[in-house]
Every structure is written in structure tokens, then in C-alpha cells.
């Protein structure tokens, strides 16, 4: 029981650091990195959470995401369904293709590679990986690397493509 408490305290410390550093999804990324590092370094034994915790986390995440759906969201689809459908098709297509290539070229198990390259958030895809039996830590690392690279690269590219005073 104490190891669960220590794990939660380490996660809380990492979350606070992630938020203080203004990392995207700081609480999630900070707690994941903190607990992961303690686990890798073997400082204290990090227990695997009971199966009920996974259900609870999916429930909380589903509830949070559900609160973001509003009548305005569906009204906007009237004008945005074509670009949304196109973007979705492109994102899924490139995710599947890149997952297949990563699996084939780098020898990563196919399910793990597909979930690691799928368009989606780190928390969502990690929970799905956990639920489907993929290598969750690999999926998390792939999404974390993608998230960090997007945060670093996209603002730079946007500045190059959109000059001040243009629209």
C-alpha cells in the first residue's frame, strides 16, 4: 500500500513540475516522466496499478472529453464536415502508413507501431494501448517525441509561412 502512495506522490511532484514548466499536458507528461524515471532507476518499487484504476481513468477521461462536446460543436459541423472528413482521412491514412513502415523498418510490433503513430493524444492512445495489450511504454514514448517535436517545429514553420501583416 505504501508503494502506491509513494508512486502517487512521485506522480504529483512530476505533475506540478510539468505544470510549472508550462509543458503541454504538463500534469500528464510530468507525472509520466517522474514515475517512469523512478521506475527505470529502480529507486523504489513502482507497483502496477490494479485493473480497476484503468477503468476509472478511462471513465474520467471520457467524461472530460464529453464535456467538450456542445451544441455549437455540432452546428459547426454543418460548415466544417468536408474539411474535417478530409483531415481525418489524411491523418488516419498517414498514421496507418507510418505505423506500418515503423513496424516493418524498425521491427516494432505492428499494433504498438500503429498506436504509436496514430493521430491522437498521448493519454488517449496510451490508454488504448494499455487496453489492447500493446507495448504501452513504447506508444507513450512515440507520442511524447511527436508532441515535443510538434511543439518545437510547428511554431517555427508557421512563422516561416505566415509573415507578419499577411493573412
Question: Which tags fit this structure?
Answer:
globular, 0% strand, single chain, mainly alpha, 167 residues
Structure explained in plain terms:
This protein has 167 residues and is mainly α. It has seven helices and no strands. It is globular and about 55 Å long. The model has no long low-confidence stretch (mean pLDDT 88).
User: Structural class of the helix and strand makeup?
Assistant: mainly alpha
**Could you state the order of secondary-structure elements as H and E?**
HHHHHHH
* Rg (C-alpha, Å): 19 Å
Q: What general form does the structure show?
A: globular
Number of helices: 7
Approximately what portion of the residues adopt beta-strand conformation?
Answer: under 5%
Which sheet architecture does the biggest sheet show?
A: none
Structure summary, number of beta strands? 0
Quaternary assembly: single chain
Low-confidence stretches: none
Q: What value does the average pLDDT take?
A: 88
Q: Helical amount among residues, as a percent range?
A: over 70%
Distance between the termini: 57 Å
Amino acid at each position: 500500500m505504501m508503494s502506491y502512495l509513494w508512486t502517487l506522490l512521485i506522480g504529483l511532484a512530476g505533475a506540478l513540475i510539468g505544470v510549472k514548466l508550462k509543458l503541454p499536458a504538463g500534469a500528464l507528461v510530468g507525472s509520466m516522466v517522474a514515475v517512469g524515471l523512478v521506475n527505470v532507476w529502480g529507486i523504489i518499487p513502482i507497483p502496477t496499478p490494479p485493473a480497476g484504476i484503468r477503468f476509472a481513468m478511462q471513465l474520467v477521461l471520457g467524461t472530460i472529453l464529453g464535456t467538450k462536446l456542445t451544441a455549437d460543436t455540432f452546428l459547426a459541423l454543418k460548415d466544417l464536415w468536408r474539411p474535417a472528413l478530409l483531415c481525418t482521412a489524411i491523418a488516419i491514412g498517414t498514421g496507418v502508413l507510418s505505423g506500418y513502415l515503423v513496424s516493418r523498418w524498425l521491427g516494432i510490433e505492428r499494433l504498438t507501431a500503429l498506436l504509436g503513430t496514430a493521430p491522437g493524444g498521448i493519454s488517449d492512445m496510451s490508454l488504448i494501448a494499455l487496453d489492447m495489450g500493446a507495448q504501452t511504454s513504447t506508444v507513450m514514448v512515440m507520442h511524447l517525441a511527436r508532441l515535443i517535436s510538434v511543439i518545437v517545429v510547428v511554431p517555427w514553420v508557421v512563422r516561416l509561412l505566415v509573415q507578419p501583416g499577411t493573412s
